[in-house]
Amino acid sequence: MSNPEQLRYSKEHEWLATADDGLATVGITAHAANALGDVVFVQLPEPGDTVSAGEPCGELESTKSVSDLYSPVSGEITEVNQNVVDDPALVNSSPFEAGWLFKVRVEGEQENLLTADEYTAFTGE
Question: Per its UniProt record, what Pfam families does this chain match (predicted)?
């Protein structure tokens, strides 16, 4: 699965889709979902929580391991994807669409994020 060109990526394997209204949608990449294996539990930040770029804000538990979820940007959580909480397998089956994790009102810059080509080079895919 290729990395969508319109998204930006963190070195912690999250993707970010920024909308014109200042809100951004965050999920994990297909590379991360494949590395994790079957995701069985998702712990997300709560709406109203403040997250900081590069800091842990939740967890993803798979049949192999538990991994921290990092926010690629700083801001306030506005929404979480309850469908993923109810059905964590969406992270594996649809990481860039139905498996999104949360929405955040972005504060500050997104200077440390990678383009799709940079992320592909980073992961060696």
Answer: GCV_H
Within a 13 Å sphere around the CA of 92, how many CA atoms are in the beta-carbon half? 16
Dist. CA 57–CA 45, nearest whole Å: 6
CATH 2.40.50.100 applies to domain 8-123 = yes
- What is the signed CA dihedral for 10, 61, 74, 97, rounded to 10 degrees? 70
Beta strands in the chain (DSSP E): 8-9, 14-18, 23-28, 39-43, 50-51, 56-62, 66-70, 74-80, 102-107
Contact between 49 and 76 under an 8 Å Cβ cutoff? The reply is yes
Residue with tokens 């059905």: 87
Closest CA to 91 of 44, 4, 24, 32: 32
User: In 3D, which of 31, 82, 92 has the Cα closest to residue 61?
Assistant: 92
pTM of the predicted model as reported, rounded to 2 decimal places: 0.95
